[in-house]
TrEMBL record:
Source organism, top-level taxon: Bacteria
Gene name per UniProt: cycB
Organism ancestry: Bacteria, Pseudomonadati, Pseudomonadota, Alphaproteobacteria, Rhodobacterales
Composition skew (Basic and acidic residues), residue ranges: 160-169
Protein name, per record: Cytochrome c-553I
GO terms of molecular function: electron transfer activity; heme binding
Secretion signal, residue range per the UniProt entry: 1-25
Organism, scientific name: Roseovarius gaetbuli
Length: 178
């Protein structure tokens, strides 16, 4: 009987420690953070005060074109390793977190050049996508989608409403894809 009480007490203490522990989400910026929030728009593209691509989600849930395109491109090229909706997998990390914690230019560099970490406790390889136009022509779209997922501004799954593709985005896409 004493053993069961000790086990129960230890189990409750462990549960309380787990519930009381701060989560990673508390340390991440929210969608209203100036480093995330859209400060201005150009041709259907949204940017932060620091000129970094970001998302725009209207009150009714309508996402900007690049966020919608990012969902499509992420699921065509990235989810096989990184899991659906940027959630991560046993194989690769959650990119919805990386888009919030990694500097934009570092994010672009890792995708373009790849990265390899091999040591006694880790063996991970991110291949280079620098020559893949299906990734590089849409890298900002993927990035803003992952930022929107990381802040929970966009729920899991296909965004139900989207803004139309602007002429400017269409022209840039055509030029990049050849």
């Amino acid at each position: 009987m004493l053993t069961n009480r000790r086990l129960l007490s230890a189990g409750l203490a462990g549960l309380l420690a787990f519930v009381a522990a701060p989560s990673l989400a508390e340390d991440l910026p929210s969608r209203d953070d100036p480093s995330i929030a859209a400060a201005y728009e150009e041709g259907g593209r949204y940017f932060t005060e620091d000129d970094i691509p970001t998302f725009n989600v209207a009150e009714d849930g309508t996402v900007d074109w690049r966020t919608f395109s990012g969902f499509r491109r992420y699921h065509a090229e990235c989810h096989v390793c990184h899991g659906p909706d940027g959630e991560g997998s046993t194989y690769a990390p959650a990119l919805k977190v990386s888009a919030l914690t990694l500097d934009y230019y570092d994010f672009v560099g890792v995708v373009a050049e790849g990265r390899q970490k091999v040591n006694a406790s880790e063996n991970s390889v991110m291949p280079s996508f620098g020559t893949n136009p299906n990734v590089m022509c849409y890298l900002d779209d993927i990035y803003v989608y992952l930022k929107a997922r990381g802040t929970e501004a966009v729920a899991r799954g296909r965004p139900p409403k989207k803004d139309p593709k602007s002429d400017s985005i269409r022209e840039d896409e055509d030029a990049c894809m050849g």
